[in-house]
Amino acid sequence: MNKTPKKRIFIKSYGCQMNVYDSNRIKNLFEPKGYSETGDLTKADLIVLNTCHIREKAVEKVYSDIGRIKKIKKNKHKLVIAGCVAQAEGKEIKKRASSVDYIVGPQSYHKLPSMIENNNSFINNDFLQNEKFKKLLFKSSNTVSEFVSIQEGCDKFCSFCVVPYTRGSEFSRPINEIKEEIKKYIDNGIKEVVLLGQNVNAYYDDSQSGKHADLAYLINKISEFDNIERIRYMTSHPNDMTNSLIEAHGKNFKLMPFLHLPIQSGSDKILKKMNRKHNVKKYYKIIDKLKSWRPDIALSSDFIVGFPEETNEDFDQTMKFVNNVNFAIAYSFMFSSRPGTPASKFKKVDLSIKKARLSALQSLLKEQQKNYNKSFVNSALETLFDRKGRHKDQYIGRSIYNQSVFVNSVSNLIGKKLNVKIVRSTDFALEGEL
Ligand code: SF4
Fold this sequence. Notes:
This protein has helices spanning 17-30, 56-72, 84-96, 112-118, 129-135, 163-166, 175-187, 215-222, 243-251, 268-273, 280-293, 312-325, 351-374; strands at residues 7-13, 35-37, 46-51, 78-83, 102-104, 123-124, 145-149, 151-152, 171-172, 192-196, 204-205, 213-214, 230-234, 258-260, 298-305, 329-334, 380-388, 394-399, 404-408, 417-425, 429-433. It has 434 residues and is of the alpha/beta class. It has three domains: 7-130, Methylthiotransferase, N-terminal domain (Rossmann fold, 3-Layer(aba) Sandwich), CATH 3.40.50.12160; 132-374, Alpha-Beta Horseshoe (pyruvate-formate lyase- activating enzyme), CATH 3.80.30.20; 380-433, CATH 2.40.50.140. Strands 2-1-3-4-5-6 form a six-stranded parallel beta sheet, with helices on both faces. Strand 11 and strand 12 form a beta hairpin. Helix 8 packs parallel to helix 9 (243-251), helix 9 (243-251) packs parallel to helix 11 (280-293) and helix 12 (312-325) runs parallel beside helix 13. It is globular and about 60 Å long. The chain starts with 6 loop residues before the first strand and ends with a strand. The site of iron/sulfur cluster has 10 residues, from helix 6. The site of iron/sulfur cluster (SF4) has 10 residues, from helix 6.
């Protein structure tokens, strides 16, 4: 009998959840070809680096990983560079790294198996979103929570961002296709879906005869699945926070009371230079409306400090804004200039100033997160458990507000949704008792 030889694939994902999703799809594409995943790259026949282009450091990391792999790479190994660095710097990678065998962008990775089989194309960075999703396979190895990509690309062109160039223009998948994918995950036991998109709330589907199918409509359709108990979405843009989506937070109790809504700066002058197309007042208005529908909603955001021409006064406005909003969690980064973006040509802020501002902002955000977590001590919090902890009998789950909750239990809690009494909080997590 002709047996397919067993081969191994090693995949490393850099950056965002969308890349994690894409890496899972790449793995699924190679499974019918006899590949199984390995965590040991020396044992892999196929090594895939699924890269991120959002910050300069992330790109340098890819080149240093390529260098490390070159030292152990033998003839049988095939090295693939996928993701946004492949899209933006395909030709440059080919020039700089002769050990790379294939280069494939985020909208054409479904072609990778045939590229390898036919050995006929080394760089593929076409924008083939529509074709891609029709060719992908969706097999979950998770049993509790799963990412689902519903939208890709961006038309906003913030002056610092590479996404519109690497992921292409905004593209939304039809509702029926998304529901079919979720059904497959439900068969595996999934109870929670996290809807992903670079601009997830720009989602629309115009194939729904006469209905305005936006993200709120999609969320309501997904909640009709009895087995899906929780829905989250990320990442949103303030300009696409429609009234229907805000209302869904009050009306649909499967939609979790957590929103990651990047603002990037608390200064209108800087927001304008960033080409964000919204101001601080608009952001406050959105929060007010959200809180009128869901008073307990947990808010999260992203900040860039030291954006070109950011003065002390602009930075003070960001600090004031953070103090006013009081975030449950937020992420902050120093401005990182990306080649080809308008902001790469703006006048830069000194590194020492950027560092000092980042440190001040991060201390404030850390304090807010710590206090937020502390406010749950001695109360009960609904938690969905999705994994084992590092210690014996330890389980980790997510609260409805997206915090990590640790408990001890002799019985298996994975997949269980339980009310947990919070007994202790740390800066980044909660400890509870059943
Ligand atoms: S909205 Fe987000 S993805 Fe789009 S350009 Fe701005 S930062 Fe990048």
